[in-house]
Structures are given as C-alpha cells and as structure tokens.
Amino acid sequence: MSGSSISSARSNAARLPRARSCCSRFEIESRAMETINMLLPPLEAWVATIFARAGLGEDDARLAARRLLLADITGVRTHGIARLPSYWRQLARRGLNPRPDIKCGWHGTVLVIDADLGLGQIVGPKALALAMDALGPTRPFVPFLIRNAGHLGAVGSHLLDVAESGRVGFLSQVTQPVMAPGGATRPAIGNNPIAFAAPRPDGPPLLIDFAMSNVARGKIHVALRDGLPIPEGWAIDAEGRPTTDPTAALAGSILPAAGHKGLALAMIVEVLAGVLTGARPLLSEGGAPGGVGAFGFVFDPAALIGKDAFDQNMQAWTQRYLAAVGGNGRIPGERAAELRAQADQVGIAIERNLFEQLAELGREGGAVLPA
Fold first, then answer.
1. What family does this chain come from, according to its entry (predicted)?
2. Integer distance in angstroms from the first to the last C-alpha of the chain?
3. DSSP secondary structure code for residue 135 in this structure
C-alpha cells in the first residue's frame, strides 16, 4: 500500500457510513430487510483487493478474504463481511499488523504461537495448520496457545479444515469485556466463544460454535446499523437495567447465556485463553480489538483409537441422537454444510445498509464494489 493510500485510510477511517435514519419505523425495517445478492468469486476477489490495499501481502489477502466470507457462507453473518470496515480501520491505524511475523515454539508439550498482532483471518488458519503439522504417531494430541492475535472472527470457521482432514479440533478465544449479569453497571468479562469440530463418516463434520452470551454482540451492531430495536433479554444499559435500545446496550453489557452457567463457561475460557496468554483486550479499544489470546487443541483420532473405531462410535451416537429427536433437531454443522453448497451456487445476500457501507469502503480503498 502506498504512503498516500495509507495516509488517506488513516484520515478517512472514521468516515465510513453509519446507520441512516428514515422517516418511520416501517421504512427503517423495510430498508433493513432489503438485500442484494452477490456471487462469491467477484466478491471474494474484491475483499482480497481491499485487504491488499490495507497492506496485506497478496497470498494473505486471498486467505483472509476466503476465511472472512466463510463466516457469511456458513450463516455466521455477524462475523463475516460485516466486519470488513472495522478491520480496515484497525489495519489503517496499525491496530492490526498487515504483515505479521508469526512465530511458534514449544513450551514443554504445548505449541505456543505469537501472532504479532496479525489479522485473525490469517492467524487462525495458519495457527491450526501449524498444530496439525505437529501431529504424528508419537504426538497424536497437540494443545496450543495463540498470543497477541487479532480478533479471530467466527472461531468455528478455522476448524472446518481440521475436521475435513479427519482430525478433531477445539478453539477458544478471550474477548474484551462485553458481558455481565443483570444489575451490573459495566462489562465484567468477555463473551469468550468456543468452537469444536469432528469428522463424521456419514455426514458433514460436527461443528459447534457459540459465545457465552445470549447473543453475539455483532447482532447489536447490526440492529444499530439498521435502526432497529433489540429483543428484550439481550442486554442491559450502563445503569444495569434491561434495554431494547442498541445504543444503550453497546454502552452497557450483553447478558450471559443460561445465567450463571454462561458466566462460568466464560471464566473457564478466561483462564485457558486469557490467563495463559496474558491477553488483556480492552473495551475502550473498540469492537473486536487486537491483542487477544486463544487456546485450542487438535488430535488425530486414528492414532488414538483407530479410524474404524472412531467412525463407528461417531455414527452410533449421532444416529441414536437423530432417531430420538426425529424432525425436531439435527447435528450441528449440517445447516452450515447446506448453506455452503447453496452459496456456491447462488452467492450470498447482503443487506442494503451493509452494501452501502461496503460501497463507501470500496471508494475509499480505490476498489469498486462489484454490483
């Protein structure tokens, strides 16, 4: 990226458009529901161009584009292309390092990775690749820590490659404080997401990905962008009172899933991904700040119990589960697989307000958003 381009990015970073107000609630909701369909190849090429204009190398820009859009493709819309304007701003002001020197080493039997403030969409896949490369006959289980990383986005997106290669993976990330129990007057802890993936012999990989809050904070940002209220039970304001106002919610805290259970799970991740890495992401740094920590592991089930035994055991419990729930449930990961196949054919739908934000970003970055 040229000096003039990065200077322009820094000076204009705050000028990306925010939610536009309309004359009535009906007009706001109608605009929020309006979508524009975009095919994946030109959209992915455009996202890669934006990342390259932000300073990423060509290969990393393509990798980041694919991984970012994988969140949209698999239905995690809050952590996909909607995050691109935020990442652009962070890269422009060097809150994220566009060309990180990612290093790794062993601390006993734990693989420790220093991400050098790299964008999470390149750190995640590279970290998992390093962990999988370390697997072998005498090392069937590899735990790892990631230090000093950018926000990893949809953590489950980094595990699909693991499961599709026949391995099992787990990944957790500590976030800035955004969550608290009712009555709290400031955020107390991150919503600290976890993800788990495992191969299945008779279906797409089992893929579980969730944060410890009632709702992803990104959904509140979407409501703010689209000028809509949020449902009751999502958040509290800065006085600890329930709110349906997204602005008040972002100034306050989101509520934990399942009350004390969500808080307890977040505390476990705080130890594994925060205490062990020294991560201290701050709410004052803005949404999805860099400097986060992560903990995870990969293992090769074939080396532990044999591929045939693993496949038989996986098939046995999943079939038993599906027989019990009938049409009232499915195995996590099946919907994501269906959405991936659909997106390959028809692309993805982007809300009108987000499309306009991306179009403005394209003008700022000198890359016209494909229509």
1. Belongs to the LDH2/MDH2 oxidoreductase family.
2. 25
3. -
How far, in Å, CA of 94 to CA of 84, rounded? 15
Question: Which pLDDT belongs to residue 287?
Answer: 61
What global pTM score does this model have?
Answer: 0.89
Give CA–CA dist 332/354, Å, rounded. 28
Q: In Å, what is the CA distance from 19 to each residue of 226, 228, 251, 322?
A: 6, 10, 17, 43
pLDDT (average), residues 74-81: 94
Position of tokens 């701050």? 282
The amino acid present at 55, given as its one-letter code, is: G
The residues, ordered by sequence, that sit 6+ positions from 196 with a Cβ below 8 Å of its Cβ are: 159, 168, 169, 170, 171, 206, 207, 208, 209
**Encoded amino acid at 227, one letter:** G
The DSSP letter of residue 189 is B
Q: What is the dihedral of CA 305, 163, 208, 339, to 10 degrees?
A: -150
DSSP 240: S
Question: Which strand (E) or helix (H) includes residue 160?
Answer: helix 160-164
Contacts of residue 116, defined as CB under 8 A and 6 or more positions apart, other chains included, come to: 97, 100, 101, 102, 103, 148
Q: How many residues make up the chain in this entry? A: 371
pLDDT band at 371 (very low <50, low <70, confident <90, very high): confident
List the single range of 200-204, 251-255, 279-283, 307-311 with lowest mean pLDDT.
Answer: 279-283
Architecture of the domain whose range is 102-211+262-332: 2-Layer Sandwich (3.30)
214-255 CATH: 3.30.60.50
Kindly state the helix (H) or strand (E) to which residue 108 belongs, with its residue range.
none
pLDDT for 290: 75
**Measured distance CA(78)–CA(344) in Å, rounded:** 20
Burial label, 278 (beta-carbon count in 10 A; 0-12, 13-18, 19+): exposed
Residue 21: pLDDT band with limits 50, 70, 90: very low
